[in-house]
Design brief:
The protein has helices spanning 6-19, 30-62, 75-83, 87-120. By secondary structure, it is an all-alpha fold. Helix 2 (30-62) runs antiparallel to helix 4. The longest helix has 34 residues, at 87-120. The radius of gyration is 26 Å and the shape is elongated. The two termini are 51 Å apart. 7% of the residues are buried.
Amino acid sequence: MRNKTDRNDARGIAHLVRLGWFRQVFVKSEEAQQVGMLLVNRQQLMNQLQDIENSVRGSLKVCGYRIGHVTKHSFEARVLELVGDTPSSLAITEPMLRVRRTLLEEFCRLDRLARACSGKMPSVGG
């Protein structure tokens, strides 16, 4: 259309509807959007935690330290056990552990929220 006016826009939309060149769009509820945002943010923190753990593992492996199989909550204690006697390795590794500790706390907080939300959701087909 040559001139963009409300009247011309309305005419164009009516023409599209008559021709059937549209499809119905569903808008998610605000609650669904918030749950989605919660899950995306939780996943992001989990990925960052894994990246930091892998970086620490790789750094210590170069120095000859092997962390082995540990849980999320025993990771830091194991790293400190390995590098505790080497001040330079401890000084290099400690900042990563502090960041990881903060990420883990926030991940646990979002995980608790996600678990609480899953308890409130209606069951599908039931």
